[in-house]
Design a protein that fits this description.
single chain; 343 residues; alpha/beta; 46% helix; 13% strand
Length: 343
């Protein structure tokens, strides 16, 4: 199937929310990791989201002349071609973008999609993320209003992060402390500024103790039940029926979460969960195994010629793709999206 149209993406998110499941959002940094993500979704019979961070886009732009926009555009164009052979719907998304990188990343990409839409085509990306968690909530939401209007005009969904996620992601660092929990007041101010769909659809990355990266059990206290309080507080404030879930939530820093924590988050309106750390390891681990097992083949030891079949990137690349694809399937199972693809 081709990359999801705006209509299909909206339907995907609606079905996830109604069915209380979420789509894994897999960070990719190359055409090979893109294929691994697509393969994992296809084998799980799950639609999904592929995303590119600012650092990933810069890497994709090449080390000779680093450029985030060309890297993101190139991979997106590649994805529009190769995704057609996978029997699932895939949305393309850009991950965390702080204020100082908006002009060099999200705004130019919005302009690309706006031009495509004006020509009668679909946008290049289906959603973009604005990470204003390092700003005051007032400034965060003011920029969010501007970006939401631009995104809606280009048939794109905006993701906003209103309060910090701990740990480090592409140079954005937040301490692990009590500020990692969004309040009902924060949620109400967000709805007042961005609306509840009337100004354009957006995904909300609220904080409930989330931390990016790798952490050992006990170092982080996740409280996914907090999301229920946020939904209820906003529903009451805006006259929505009791039990309604006004927000489409995103789960950041999901690596290492327990199945129960994930289940609680899904029940409370999470429709997208980011995965990067776990899939990075799943991609790299088979490569390490290959190198250790074929040490004298991948290296020209003691003047020997090595073994071309061992150091051919395809030999270890295939194992890396499978390792990451397998991890994507696990994510689909954990998020209840397995077997839910749109026909």
């Amino acid at each position: 199937m081709p990359i999801a149209t705006p209509e299909i993406y909206n339907e995907m998110l609606d079905r996830a929310k109604e069915g209380k499941f979420a789509y894994p959002a897999i960070n990719v940094t190359s055409t090979q990791t893109l294929h691994a993500a697509l393969r994992g979704f296809a084998e799980a019979e799950s639609d999904g989201i592929v995303q590119i961070s600012t650092g990933g886009a810069e890497f994709l732009g090449g080390q000779y002349n680093k450029d985030m926009v060309s890297g993101a555009v190139a991979l997106a164009e590649f994805a529009h071609i190769v995704a057609k052979k996978y029997p699932v719907n895939i949305a393309l998304h850009t991950d965390h973008c702080p204020k100082d990188k908006l002009d060099g990343y999200v705004r130019p990409l919005l302009a690309v999609s706006k031009e495509r839409v004006q020509r009668g085509e679909n946008p290049l990306f289906q959603s973009h993320m604005w990470d204003g968690s390092a700003e005051t909530l007032k400034d965060n939401l003011e920029i969010g209003q501007e970006l939401l209007a631009e995104a809606a005009a280009a048939k794109i969904i905006l993701e906003v992060e209103i309060t910090p996620t701990g740990g480090e992601e592409d140079g954005i660092t937040h301490e692990i402390n009590d500020e990692l929990y969004t309040t009902v007041e924060d949620a109400i101010r967000t709805a007042e500024a961005l609306g509840l769909g009337d100004k354009g659809r957006y995904l909300l990355a609220a904080s409930f103790g989330n931390v990016h990266g790798v952490y050992k059990p006990g170092n982080v206290v996740l409280r996914p039940e907090l999301l229920k309080d946020l939904q209820a507080g906003v529903a009451e404030k805006f006259g929505k029926p009791a039990g309604s879930r006004p927000f489409d939530f995103v789960f950041h820093g999901g690596s290492g979460s327990t199945e129960q924590e994930i289940a609680t988050a899904l029940d409370n309106g999470v429709v997208k969960m980011n995965l990067d750390t776990d899939t990075q390891y799943a991609f790299t681990r088979p490569v390490a195994a290959h190198m250790f097992a074929n040490y004298d083949g991948v290296l020209k030891v003691d003047g020997e010629v090595g073994n071309k079949k061992a150091y051919d990137p395809r030999s270890w690349g295939k194992a890396a793709e499978k390792g990451m694809a397998d991890r994507v399937q696990v994510a689909c199972a954990n998020l209840r999206s397995t077997g839910t693809r749109l026909k």
